[in-house]
């Protein structure tokens, strides 16, 4: 299981939970977090079966799930440890949230929360599903927020050129918008945050 597959598995389950409060997705996330932190976990049969099929870094042995050390190189282990810490902190911060479903403002507010937690790829994953079915006047606005999330994801992979390109595109996409839109101060975002942006500074939106 490579880094991309790990990233996608975590993001898919988190977004399923954020959209619909899908209990199984949350249980899978919490179980894998426990396995990574403690080396093992005992969980319900259906959760264990799903994880063992989807997440090859975790294997079933008797009634427990164990971390598959044979598949873990040092780089993957470090990545997984950081991912688990970030997800645990984020999940602990939710405190009885309202599922975002297809509501634009709830999705944008949640995307801001993800961004503040450093979960930049997850901003993209959450908003893209909404963007794909939005053909009205907010389509470019959503696309701009997605591109901001992906830009900062590029920075985590040391892709400065990709970062600069997407920040420039995001600012252009935001040109038709002004004021406060779905909790985002668009004027501040365009004029102060994106206009003076460097890769070593994390914006607020």
UniProtKB/TrEMBL annotation:
Q: Which Pfam families match?
A: DUF309
Family annotation (Gene3D superfamilies): TTHA0068-like
Q: Which domain of life is it from?
A: Bacteria
InterPro entries tied to this protein: DUF309, TTHA0068_sf
Q: What name is this protein filed under?
A: DUF309 domain-containing protein
Q: Which organism is it from?
A: Desulfurobacterium thermolithotrophum (strain DSM 11699 / BSA)
Phylogenetic placement of the source organism: Bacteria, Pseudomonadati, Aquificota, Aquificia, Desulfurobacteriales
């Amino acid at each position: 299981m490579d880094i991309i597959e790990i990233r996608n598995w975590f993001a898919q389950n988190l977004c399923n939970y954020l959209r619909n409060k899908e209990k199984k997705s949350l249980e899978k996330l919490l179980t894998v977090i426990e396995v990574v932190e403690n080396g093992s976990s005992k969980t319900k049969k259906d959760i264990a079966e799903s994880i063992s099929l989807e997440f090859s870094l975790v294997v079933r042995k008797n009634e427990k799930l164990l971390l598959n050390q044979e598949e873990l190189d040092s780089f993957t282990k470090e990545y997984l440890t950081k991912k688990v810490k970030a997800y645990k902190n984020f999940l602990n911060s939710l405190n009885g949230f309202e599922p975002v479903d297809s509501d634009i403002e709830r999705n944008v507010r949640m995307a801001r929360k993800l961004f503040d937690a450093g979960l930049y790829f997850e901003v993209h994953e959450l908003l893209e599903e909404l963007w794909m079915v939005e053909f009205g006047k907010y389509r470019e606005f959503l696309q701009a927020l997605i591109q901001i999330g992906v830009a900062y994801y590029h920075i985590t992979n040391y892709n400065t050129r990709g970062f600069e390109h997407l920040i420039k595109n995001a600012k252009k996409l935001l040109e038709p918008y002004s004021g406060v839109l779905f909790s985002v101060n668009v004027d501040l975002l365009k004029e102060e945050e994106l206009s003076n942006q460097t890769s070593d500074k994390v914006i607020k939106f």
